[in-house]
UniProtKB/TrEMBL annotation:
Active site: residue positions: 109, 153 (proton donor/acceptor), 256 (proton acceptor)
Annotated positions binding Mg(2+): 8, 36, 153, 155, 255-256
Enzyme Commission (EC) number: 3.1.11.2
CDD domains cross-referenced by the UniProt entry: Nape_like_AP-endo (cd10281)
Pfam families noted in UniProt: Exo_endo_phos
Keyword Magnesium (UniProt): yes
Annotated site residues (Interaction with DNA substrate) in this chain: 256
UniProt-recorded Gene Ontology molecular function terms: double-stranded DNA 3'-5' DNA exonuclease activity; metal ion binding
Organism: Streptomyces albidoflavus
Name of the protein this chain belongs to: Exodeoxyribonuclease
Required cofactor names: Mg(2+); Mn(2+)
Length: 264
């Protein structure tokens, strides 16, 4: 059994003060993938930087206070890689992977965009490079007899079932036709599977991000953008997947909720 959780913490220092530390102490996960850490290791208290019982790898962004990903594993990784060989993005705190016995687990923070701006152009450049890396990663893993799961904030809702207000967001970054078509290629061309969708084929959502504006959380007006994207062999072993949605708005420690999958 392997239990993997992905969580965009929306600033690890802030999340640690709101309940992340208690959540981590209680989780049954074997691997935790974090995104939007937004901190250097030296800025974090020891209980967050080096929690007891975990091996932690941080990949901060060169631009301080931005992005940043991390991996927490119960057992020591056999190998760690930061970045995916991109001259533009390898110091941007958006990707880190670790080899564990039989499986490579990665934490991804895909850029968020904004239509008509350089941020969207950046997102599209990242997507183009990252798709090629996903193909390479799957081929390399297959040659080594390994499976792969890339967890994280992919910042794209793939289908209408993946966001509450899809009609109003057809021209919004995160639900653009070209972004959704890119995820089609991740699944069809690169050969990965959307694990949570396979486990919940008929369900709207389950959503993992809700805006802090208005009553989005209370109304469950969310987006499903925090994904487990796995090679077919590992995806087929998934027996349970859940969004760890807080009971109330006040109990949230991020605008995202952890997404946890148990692989048998």
């Amino acid at each position: 059994m392997l239990t993997v959780t992905t969580a965009n913490v929306n600033g690890l220092r802030a999340a640690a003060k709101k309940g992340y530390v208690e959540w981590l102490a209680a989780t049954d996960a074997d691997v935790v993938c974090l995104q939007e850490v937004r901190a250097e290791e030296s800025q974090l208290p020891e209980a967050v930087r080096a929690p007891e019982g975990w091996h932690v790898v941080f990949a901060p962004a060169a631009a301080k206070g931005r992005a940043g990903v991390a991996l927490l594993t119960r057992r020591a990784p056999e190998r760690v890689r930061t970045g995916f060989g991109s001259a533009e993005f390898d110091t941007s705190g958006r990707y880190v992977e670790a080899d564990l016995p039989g499986v490579t687990v990665a934490s991804l923070y895909l850029p968020s965009g904004e239509v008509g701006t350089e941020r969207q152009d950046e997102k599209e450049r990242f997507m183009a490079e990252f798709l090629e890396y996903l193909k390479e990663l799957r081929a390399r893993a297959a040659a080594d007899g390994r499976e792969v799961v890339v967890c994280g904030d992919w910042n794209i809702a793939h289908q209408e079932a993946d966001l509450k207000n899809w009609k109003a967001n057809r021209k919004s970054s995160g639900f653009l036709p070209e972004e959704r078509a890119w995820l089609d290629r991740v699944y069809a061309e690169a050969g990965y599977a959307d694990v949570m969708r396979a486990l919940h084929p008929e369900q709207a959502g389950p959503y993992s991000w809700w805006s802090y504006r208005g009553r989005a959380f209370d109304n469950d007006s969310g987006w499903r953008i925090d994904l487990h994207v796995a090679t077919p062999g590992l995806a087929a072993r998934a027996v349970k997947g859940q969004v760890e949605r807080a009971a109330t708005h006040e109990e949230r420690w991020s605008d995202h909720a952890p997404v946890t999958v148990v692989y048998g």
